[in-house]
Each structure stands twice: as C-alpha cells, then as structure tokens.
Amino acid sequence: MKLLSIGLNGTTGEIREKLECDCKTLTQEGFRVVIEELDRGGYKFLGLNISDGELSFRNYERIKNVLRSSVSQILANWIINTEENKLINKIVTSNYCYFNQDERAIVESNAVRALRSSPDARYDLIMARILDYLDNHHELVLDGFLNFRLKDYRLQLAEVIDKVVDDFMMDLEYKEFIRVLRYFVDVQEPRVEEAHVVISGAGVFKIYDSHRKIIKNQHLDNAVLQSCNVSDDKGLNFEDLLISALITIAPHNIMVHSTNRTRDEEALETIRSVFDGRVVLCDGCEMCITDFAGNSNHTEL
Questions:
Q1: Does the predicted TM-score (pTM) go above 0.90?
Q2: For 252-288, what is each residue's pLDDT tens digit?
Q3: Which of 241, 212, 235, 219 is nearest to 299 (CA)?
Q4: What are phi and psi of 115, to 5 degrees?
Q5: Whole-angstrom Cα distance, residue 251 to residue 243?
Q6: What angle do CA 27, 30, 33 make, to 5 degrees?
Q7: Rounded to an integer, what distance in angstroms lies between the CA atom of residue 203 and that of residue 212?
Q8: What one-character-per-residue DSSP string does 160-213 give?
Q9: Residue 213 and residue 276 in contact, taking contact as beta carbons nearer than 8 Å
Q10: Residue 147 zone, left/alpha/beta (φ > 0; ψ -120 to 50; rest)
Q11: What are phi and psi of 207, to 5 degrees?
C-alpha cells in the first residue's frame, strides 16, 4: 500500500538513509515499510509503502502521520543544510548581478553567517509548510515545493541578503573613506613630531605635544571650527572632528590615551586605520586615568 512519495533532483542516498532509520520503529511494531526508488520526469522518487498485510483505516492513518512527521523533519533539515546555500546563490546572482564574482562570494558568505545564528525560526516555518502540504497530498517534489510553496521562506532569505548587502556597501564606503584619508596623511608634511591624544569622555578629546602641553595653533583651531560649523549639514561627529584635527597637525607619531577603551573602540580603530604604523595605544598612565591638565581646553560636542 502506497503512503508517501518524495521527488528529488539528484542523489537520494542521505535522505533515504534517514528515512530507513526512522522507519525502524514501525518495523518493530510489525509494519514493514519498503522504500522504493524510481526515475520519472527527470526526478528520482522515493516511495514509502507498507508491504505486508492489510491495514485497518486506524493503523493506516497512524502510520501515515508517523511518516508524514518523519519526512517533514528530514526535508526541513535538508532544505536548511543543503538547499539554502543554493537559494542564497540564486538570489545574489539574480538581484546583485552588478557585483563581481569576488563581491558576490563575500555577500553569500556573510549571508550564510548571518542566517546561521537563527535557523530555528526558518526550520519551524518549513516544517509547518511541509506538514500542511502532506496533509492533503501523497507526493511532494522538492524543487516545485521550494519554488511555489515556500515563497515566504525565500522572502526571508532575500531580506537577510538585502541587509547583508547594505552592511557590505557601508564597509566598502568606509574602506574608501579610509583610503582617501590615508592619502591626505601620506602627502601631508608632519607639523609635530609626536602627539598625545587623550579621549576622556564621550565626545571629549584633547591633543598634547611631547611635553604634555595642549597643541593649540591657528591651523588646528581653524580645522576644528570649520568642522563644527558644517557638522549639522555633513553629519560630522566626535570621531570626524578628532580625525580632522589629527590630519591637520599630521603628527609623525601618535600616542592614544583612552579612559574607556570599550566606549572609544570605534574611534581607536579609525585612528589606527588612517594613521597606519604611526599609532601606539597607551597601556595605562596618568593621562589615561585622569584629566591631568586640569583645564577646560578641549574639544567637545
């Protein structure tokens, strides 16, 4: 007696092994489930049949439900672990054809990483769709099911990929921004040999020379003033002002003192990126702990 049939495009070995394992419980109860494989219409079909004796309606429904649950779990796992990467590739290739091959590979890798953190919701969605489908159908062709019955699942993948692409584009823009700033740093003649940057609060920094005196000159004042004047229009923030000030004085060496590295992590990373090879992060001194100068000469947003 035929119960269920699954149509697959490609190898059936792994899915068949899992089905045979799940069918052992029914075999122990006296019902021998036979899995038959045949080729039809370019697909390989796995047919699940009961071979021995007649079944009462009650037993038929119970066995069908057991197999329905087993097939749903196996196929949901298969889609998440095997088919999902193929779907991601198709979406990226179709929606972001203007990326080169390396960029598409990065987007796909980042999307897989993002999706890996929350597979349960997608698994539950796929499971529910398969169970609902097998409640009214005896045959399921996986390709057709993915294309026509899991549109909401594929929409979820597309939304995650869109977010990954947004982050990827922001990262490219940031790298270009850093590249341009590095160019300015490379062509700028250093105005001071050494500068100590003290970040003492959110939006607060001071720049000292090697003698621990506030660096205050016309070039620096003009740069900071200009940045402050356009901050509302250009979206400049504390980090922008600090980088602008450092590029203006173009120190040969920079020692950065931070009272809170967690708070200042983004600013510290940008300084290191722009002034590559010139930056040393202080391991801890009085400048890292207190406002040792004890005055109000600082830049604050």
A1: no
A2: 999 999 888 888 888 899 999 999 889 999 888 877 7
A3: 241
A4: -75, -25
A5: 12
A6: 45
A7: 21
A8: HHHHHHHHHHHHHHHHHHHHHHHHHHHHSPPS-SEEEEEEEETTEEEEE-TTS-
A9: no
A10: alpha
A11: -125, 125
